[in-house]
Amino acid sequence: MIVIAGTVRVPPDKIEAARPHMEAMVTASRAEDGCTAYSYAQDVLDPGVVHVIEVWESDAALKAHFETPHMAAWRAVWSTLGVGDRNLTRYTVTDATPL
What we know:
37% of the residues lie in helices and 33% in strands.
């Protein structure tokens, strides 16, 4: 299992403009083969921070995700929305236990 976790910054005055693009990205990603979880969440204390959590069944699924049209569309609008300061980490998980 591959987990991607971290944050990106979106200027608070651009969050509403970014929302439909983020919703499209989340919806399309969740429909991909091998996607177990995919979400963005705005930080309650810092409205310019968006938390990212992705869970993929395999490296192949993650690699295919990077090649999708919705990923290209999302990346294409980053500069107009001020998306930046990406701080994402990839984790390889061999065991997971519900809390």
